[in-house]
Design goal:
20% strand; alpha/beta; binds 1-hydroxy-2-naphthoyl-CoA; 270 residues; seven-stranded mixed sheet; globular; menaquinone biosynthesis; 1,4-dihydroxy-2-naphthoyl-CoA synthase; ClpP/crotonase-like_dom_sf; lyase
């Protein structure tokens, strides 16, 4: 399989194959921990995916066979956030969470090793998770002086239930891929050497489905949990679909032609 580079970055690889984008966190020396620049690059890559018509699915993974992502890079954890080369402390992985959530295309986490701390949250936020047999999952916040009470807690609880979510966060234990699958936060476990193949196969299957149907399902599943914000995304797409209809075009045409619109011609479905 020949992955073609979409854009060169420092901390990530951003590649394309058959309509499937792959974002790989490429900092294996720190178990793919992220620093502010890593998140900025992933955010930009997600924005490119959003704009490109030829991309339907994203795979998110980590370089090597040790880690998917070990969370925030502890070497640059400063006062008020993780400090980038510009000296500014940031928690900008939260902006990446929002991008993943709002992207009208599925994001599949391919967890190839440790998904720990902020790295665990990252897979939680993705639409689907496929894990290799060697993957290990867990939170560390209360052990290392952090917590993610946002999607990392509330959305996790939707996957595994409130009791398990509290156990994961309060005890900071690690869980095997099999345990994570049993808990309902992993869709499938495969051998490490088949992880990418499985991800590409899922991606290709999704690419054969109706993009609008997939989009509206993601919006609807989000909207139930995301309140007014989720409703806004759902409603935005309803407007987009309305604009595809003759009925919406009639309103615009009548305005431009300085006449009353003839909406009577359109059906009132039961
Ligand atoms: O909670 C948040 C946020 C909350 C709200 C808003 C934004 C947030 C943003 C981020 C986060 C967080 O991510 S907090 C949690 C930060 N991460 C961690 O606490 C995980 C730290 N790492 C570990 O617990 C372990 O390394 C491990 C369970 C993943 C693996 O253990 P293992 O197999 O014993 O390997 P280890 O020797 O510990 O690590 C391998 C190498 O990777 C080490 O480097 P070396 O000594 O070989 O040079 C280790 O230092 C490095 N490494 C691992 N994780 C990190 C790391 N270096 C920097 N940062 C890391 N997170």
């Amino acid at each position: 399989r020949k992955w073609e580079t979409i854009k060169e970055y420092k901390d990530i690889k951003f590649e394309l194959f058959d309509g499937i984008a792959k974002i790989t966190i490429n900092r294996p020396e720190v178990y793919n921990a992220f620093r502010p620049e890593t998140n900025m690059e992933m955010i930009e890559a997600m924005d490119i995916v959003r704009e490109r018509q030829d991309i339907g699915v994203v795979l998110l993974t980590g370089e090597g066979d040790k880690a998917f992502c070990s969370g925030g890079d502890q070497n640059v954890k400063g006062v008020g956030g993780y400090v980038g080369e510009d000296g500014v402390p940031r928690l900008n992985v939260l902006d990446l969470h929002k991008r993943i959530r709002e992207l009208p295309k599925p994001v599949i986490a391919l967890v190839n090793g440790y998904a720990i701390g902020g790295g665990h949250v990252l897979h939680v936020v993705c639409d689907l998770t496929i894990a290799s047999e060697n993957a290990r999952f867990g939170q560390t916040g209360p052990k290392v002086g952090s917590f993610d009470a946002g999607f990392g807690s509330s959305y996790l609880a939707r996957h595994v239930g409130q009791k398990k979510a509290r156990e994961i966060w309060f005890l900071c234990k690690q869980y095997t891929a099999a345990e994570a699958e049993q808990m309902g936060m992993v869709n499938k476990v495969v051998p490490l050497e088949s992880l990418e193949d499985e991800g590409v196969e899922w991606g290709q299957t999704i690419m054969m489905r109706s993009p609008m149907a997939i989009r509206m399902l993601k919006r609807g599943l989000n909207a139930e949990l995301d309140g007014q914000r989720g409703l806004m995304e759902f409603a935005g797409d309803a407007t987009m679909m309305f604009y595809l209809m003759e009925e919406a075009q009639e309103g615009k045409k009548a305005f431009l032609e300085k006449r009353d619109p003839d909406f009577k011609q359109f059906p009132k479905f039961p």
